[in-house]
Amino acid sequence: MIELWGGLEGTVNRVRDQYFSQMDQNGHGNRISDLDRFAALGIKAIRYPVLWELTAPDGIANADWTWADERLPALRDLGVAPIVGLVHHGSGPRHTSLVDPEFGPQLAEYAGAVAARFPWVEYYTPVNEPCTTARFAGLYGVWYPHGKSDLVFLQALINQCKGVVLSMRAIRAVNPNAKLVQTDDLGKTYSTPELADWADFYNERRWLAWDLLCGTVDEDHTLWPYIMKSGIPAADVLWFRDNPCPPDVVGLNYYITSERWLDHRGDRFPARYVGEHGFADIETARALATPTPGIAPLMDEVWERYGLPMAITEAHIDANREDQLRWLHEVWNAAHEVQRKGADVRAVTVWSLLGSYDWNCLVTECRGYYENGAYDLRAPEPRPTALARLMQELSSGRAPSSPVLQGLGWWRRPGRFLCPPVATSATVAALPAERLAAQRTVQPILISGATGTLGSAFARICEERNLAFRVLTRQEMDIADPASVEAAIQQYKPWAIVNAGGYVRVHDAEQDSQRCLRENAQGPVVLAIACARHQVRLLTFSSDLVFDGSKGSAYVESDPVAPLNVYGQSKAEAERRVLTVNPDTLVVRTSAFFGPWDKHNFVTLVLQAMSEGRQFAAADDLVVSPTYVPDLVQTCLDLMIDRERGIWHLSNGEAVSWAELARRVCAMAGVDCSALMAQPATALDFQAAQPRFSALASERGNMMPSLDDALQRYLQAVAEVRRQGDTHVGAAQAAHYGSS
Fold first, then answer.
1. What is the pTM of this model?
2. What average pLDDT score do residues 84-101 get?
């Protein structure tokens, strides 16, 4: 049986004289409770950092073993074998570098000290991805020592591989049974015929680290002329022939960027993909009309070349939740496919369990860009995602249960291209599972509120994310009519229902309370009862207007409700009754919508008025937390897939008055806002009482980007909508702000 392993992103990466540590960002260094979480996933082993740069930056004599002394035995006691990593996308302490001839011997000294302290540890990865690291540090100039030549690349590669050989020698002097798990990126390059020589070269170069360790690089190796031309002494290479250290497990790291397409027609591609040689180098998923079949054929190549045990040692994609699940599931199935054909496949590793930071800029800066993994760190404590549940299912042999696995990942969908699709015989037909998925019926998400802002946004984003959905009008499903809801569930067999409709006219509700209560309170309760009976997930929305504003600061989920108006009362009643009858319901409180697709939200209206020089009144004493609709929908879908429940506050996280919001977006858009009339709420003649301070914060997790970030993306999206002449406009959304 193929085991499930896990990995912890522990990179300590150097860019010039600055170090970037993932564990400074993910907090694991101060949270030993994570180990219990990891064990609960069912993993048999974990790639775990005991990094040279952190443990012994000033030499073995001054090493601080406190962290490792606590963590490694704890993992052993939990039944999780540590695969100890010593250097991970790093270059060692400040006194050395990847091109320092002493890098290898000094690393070996550290490796021997680790083994002496933990003689029971069986698995080691002394250097992660030596070929990949050498490319980024010695050829592309991205990481220290920022080389940009074949010579520096090869020096860095040879020094790292020598470090692996010497480290394993030192480790095995303590523990003769220690095993080397040697990782590197498993990719493949395809190309137009004009660039076949480049593709062939790249496809040979990807093996270099493993070939060196296996002792197969000599005068007969395909890349020998290239190596000799670089200026590397032959003796440095032939040393490996005389000192082979083949991996006990060949570790294969696989990402969506691992497979590349080279195209001599650079003008067909976005400029960022065209390099100094004038041709495009782009991930195949973004270019090839027929997607590659994935990792399975690449594993076949590894098995044919080495005949050594294999493990997929990193499997991760930076994507929406459903595509993270689809990626892992596809990789898991591929590993089993290769094993069935006779290859020795040991494990699949989920990377990274706590997510990772700033890999979108190759960890060259601390921008705070976060990709979550099996756990999401945007909560007070690491929050298990749907990926954690899938891991538990795979590790225990259960069938994956998430309905979103029924869809295709973005890398197999028609909308994936960043250029005119390239038809080529170099790729193989789509996966059989892909063809079957297109034929079978999938469970949809039912979305009520077909004509509203939220319903329209959910439909749009579900389509983008390849989540099957059905938007229902009131005639198709009256949420306040039990018979109508039952009929819809029987007809469509949904896995989830999103209640995106309801009564939204806050001020009219004062004179129309019966209808407001029917749609906002009775309807969600009817849905909750039906969903509980049929085991269907339910998402319904509440409002900041369940609060009276007297707190004077942002409200969190556990604060008591005290609505001031009929609309708020209807939402508070819905919350109470829904969670009583169906505690698994996800209830999202939010407020102050704005978005690019409907023309009747506050931000859009104020920009239009200011652009036309018309006066526009906005309350300067009502404080809210504006919410960008696309962010809200994306986050809600992730939380639904994660099976989150109870009340969540979702907004873009900043408390501002309506008038301040108007001024800020006008400033960002470069629009004169001198016609803006900032007034007290009493001057705006509201029918419904308004809380003075109803901004939302969260004690469960800050899941959405900042307000400034959202406003910038709103302006970009509006510009794109105008360019495309988009007519997808939702119905008017009456909000609780003032305008004239």
1. 0.93
2. 96
